[in-house]
Each structure stands twice: as C-alpha cells, then as structure tokens.
Amino acid sequence: MPIDPTATSITEVVQKTFEGAEDERVKELFIRLVQHLHDFTREVRLTGEEWFKAVDFLERVGKTCTPTRQEYVLLSDILGVSVLVDLIHRPGGGSVTDSTLLGPFYVEGRPKAENGSDISGEVTGTPMFFNGRVLDSDGIPVAGARVDTWHSDGEGSYDVQMQDRLHGEPAMRALLTTDHDGRFWFRSVSPRYYPVPDDGPCGEILRAANRSPMRPEHLHFWLHAEGFEPLITMLVRGDDPYVERDAVFGVRRSLVVDFVRHPAGETAPDGTRVDEPFQTVERTFVLARKER
Ligand code: BEZ
Ligand code: FE
Hints:
The chain folds into 2 domains: about 1-45, no CATH class; about 90-195 and about 210-285, Aromatic compound dioxygenase (Protocatechuate 3,4-Dioxygenase, subunit A, Sandwich), CATH 2.60.130.10. About 25% of the residues lie in helices and about 20% in strands. It is built from 7 helices and 11 strands. The protein binds benzoic acid and fe (iii) ion. Benzoic acid binds next to helix 4.
C-alpha cells in the first residue's frame, strides 16, 4: 500500500482496495463510487467544515427515520435519485403503463377490500369513485391481479400521519383484486396536494434551495399479477397547481388524469345517488409480461 498519497493519486489507491471483492458488482459499484466521490470533492474543493456539516446532516437523516418515516428515501427522492433508478430500468413510453416512485406512505398489512367498497375509513371529504381496469399488452384482461392503492385525505394527510385521530386504523388504503374482466373499483375521498415531510433534515435542503415541498394531488397503485412484472405507479390530477413542479420529480405525462367533478344529485358509477358534489376517476393499467 503506497504511503504519501496526493490529492490525485489517493483515488487509485482507494480503488485498488476494492479489487479483491469476490462479487464483481460490489467491486464495480465501489470503484466507480470512489471515483465520483473523489472527483466531486476535488471539483468543489470541499472544506473540512463542509465535510463535517455533511456528516452531521447524514447522521440527522438517520436519526429521523422511524418505521413510518423514511428520511433516507426522502433524501433520494428530493435529489431525483429514486426516479432516476426507475427511469433507467423502466424508461417507459411503450404500451405498458409507466411506473413511478413508491414514496414513504405505503405500508404493509393494509386491509383487503371488496370491489365497490368504501375504503375511506373514518375520514371525511369529497366522495371519489375510482374505476380501474388491468390489461396485458395485447389488451386481454388480467383477472385476479392484486391492486394496492393508497392516497391522502382532502387536506393532504395520509392515515399514518394522523394515527391519533384514527386510533391507528388504516384509512384511504386497501388491497383489491380484479374481477374476471380485469376490473376493480372502489369509493374513497378525493385526495389533495401536500408537502413532502419537510420538518426534518430534507426540509433544510428544500428551504436552502428555495424549493417547493409540494406534490400534486395523486393516487398511488402497486399492481401484482402472476406472470407479470409488478407495477408501482401513481395517477396525478391534471389541473393541480403543482403538476409541473413536483418536489420529487414523479410526474409522467402519461400518468396525468382527469378527476371529473359532478354536482350533487347525480348518480355515481356504482348506481347510487350522491347528495353532495363528488368526483370520478377512471384508468386502464397495462402490465408487462415477465420474460421467461
Ligand atoms: C408520496 O407520494 O407519497 C411521496 C413520495 C415521495 C416523497 C414523499 C411522499
Ligand atoms: Fe403520495
């Protein structure tokens, strides 16, 4: 191991220490990571004070994480890395529905729901009726697909952000199953735009950059079906004020939909007369077959 490295030669010295890695991918990842980290450090001539600040920042990101708050995922989201990983592997633009980021509000153990049921829990808000269909890329219905859905309430809060009010009960989330015709449908409340959690270290970055923390109004979906690639996606309200400036870069034009407004007294898609204004949303999702 050479001693007396210089600000240039240190990179190769450190890279060489990864050459013994048995896993070729681990070797590649660390060698390239060291290259980029060192280049960055040289390029901006990082000071000791800035380095300590960065370490302190990362420590605080870690300490902010809880089972229902993933500040590291949020850091990756606001730096565009979560979406970049997705775009590299699922560039989209084809017949299959585009994917986008999962976000931190998906939780396991969500309740199963029958098609047509009201998944809003105890939450009040503008009624929303969602009708979905799942097809393969030849237009054939995918029966028995499992569809996870979750969204915020009409004030932009997820159930996990108001556990006291809901006594820990899930709301506005469910696991549905498509029928023989690939259809699934449910009633809930219409969501709203909301800020990503900005009371922690990631919020400091957003404020320092004068960036908006807002995400446009959206519904999340995670679809699984035997023989198909899972799809994590989201539908975004087209006339939302934040549709062009999502804080986490998750909006794809193909995922923008109309949340159609209906006056009180009209008949909802499930045949019931609704005595208050309500909204309807429809969407077909196309899944990619797994390659054998
Ligand atoms: C979400 O859509 O739930 C979300 C995604 C990324 C960061 C924060 C929230
Ligand atoms: Fe969300």
